[in-house]
Amino acid sequence: MSTTPTTIHHFIGGKPYPSQSTEWRDVTNPATQEVVARVPFATREEVELAVANAHAAFQTWRSTSLGARMRIMLKLQQLIRENSAELAQLITREHGKTLPDAEGEVGRGLEVVEHACSITTLQLGEIAENAATGVDVYNLLQPLGVGAGITAFNFPVMLPCFMFPMAIACGNTFVLKPSEQDPSSTMRLVELAHEAGVPPGVLNVIHGGPEVADMLCDHPDIKALSFIGSTHVGTHIYRRASEAGKRVQSMMGAKNHCVVMPDAPKEHALNNLLGSAFGAAGQRCMANSVAVFVGAARDWLPDVVAKSKAMKVGPGTDRSADLGPLVNPRAKQRVVGLIDSGVAQGARLLLDGRDCTVPGYEKGNFVGPTVFADVTDQMDIYQQEIFGPVLNVVCVDTLEEAIAFINRNPNGNGTSIFTSSGWAARKYQHDINVGQVGINVPIPVPVAYFSFTGSRASKLGDLGPNGKQAVQFWTQTKTVTARWYEDHGSSSDGVNTTITMK
């Protein structure tokens, strides 16, 4: 049964702002192709208005006490918890991931908001008393001004939570551009933030595509910009915003590897590997899309195929489904094309998910679990981030070979090893040149009070989201050197023309 599509508005000055744009896009349910919402592409005037509201609100928000900001974050985490089921349903309707996966996403976003509740201790400066005689030197961590965020479609709640809660908790104001492919859950999250007490103008949302992103990069009143998405777009965003004088963090694409040692607990290793490879239909920048089997672990390949074949594909509303559809028909076409290229380039296709159909959802963007063996680093399926439910298997003889193979890949978002050997795990974490390492953990995204530390081609900028690095990113350090004289009549040592501090 079809329903009337929801009209998505911008959110400016503390309330929904109906767009005057002539350019709108349909938001579809990936399992059915039903149009569930329509989203505007902001005009230049609407972008200017959002930034102007944020700029004006900063003048008072920056002086709001840490305690007041903390209490808003405390209320926001409560509201997210109370509305988590609704947020998950909105994610599933527009993204396609299963409801349990969507609920997990909301939970990971909630972790960041909970961490922001500690802003009263996170935003502390430093002081050195009597750095020189009667002189104190201290650092203040002050907000930057207007911040901006541009998020990808694959985590419409978690990725905004990686950005605006800590940014506004630090005293900045914010303009968010969520993905136009699944904006409804993001908008509900922003509504909850205002219900929690975020003042008008502190958090604004505008929708659009590349032109709107470029406007945010160029705007002189935006002082810092956070991006999470593809490498192609992220590289452009980083360069353009940096040239405009902004502080930028850009979390980008990946090609993550999972090493399976022959001494690994087999069932745990394979179940975790397949969950990370095929969960969310592979649409995660932290998905383990390459399995590196070491030594006798290669004998487990038939089990990988059997377990993958048994996984259930269905609409995200089916709680028994292991993976749902890809986000849109273009994504499915791209993934199928890459599977075709793998076959053409000589990889051995052990499980083919190209002809996957789900009864009752024949129009859905479904691709089933797909497994390739005999993959080389020259193949397209290895060199490109597939962003679909495709697992590439590589077999090597030793851990050293596995490490060398992975270190040759230019990306460095995340990697995992499954082993029962403490020695192997320690060697791996020491020698591997990847920013985030999991030991018997398939997707090593750290808890929110640790920073997201992807590296190499997966990241541009020195500071990542979450943890201590987020506070550093969203604040500027002001150093004060202070001396106080007793009274106007106190004696002086005369004119000091040296650089010595006495």
UniProtKB/TrEMBL annotation:
Chain ranges passing through the membrane: none
Domain of life, per lineage: Bacteria
Coiled coil start-end: none
Keyword NAD among record annotations: yes
Signal peptide boundaries: none
Keyword Oxidoreductase belongs to the record: yes
UniProt region (Disordered), positions on chain: 1-21
SUPFAM superfamilies cross-referenced by the UniProt entry: ALDH-like
Span of domain Aldehyde dehydrogenase: 20-480
EC number(s) recorded for this UniProt protein: 1.2.1.27
Keywords assigned by UniProt, alphabetized: NAD, Oxidoreductase
GO molecular-function terms, A-Z: oxidoreductase activity
Record NCBIfam families: MMSDH
Family the UniProt entry places it in: Belongs to the aldehyde dehydrogenase family.
UniProt name for this protein: methylmalonate-semialdehyde dehydrogenase (CoA acylating)
Phylogenetic lineage: Bacteria, Pseudomonadati, Pseudomonadota, Betaproteobacteria, Burkholderiales
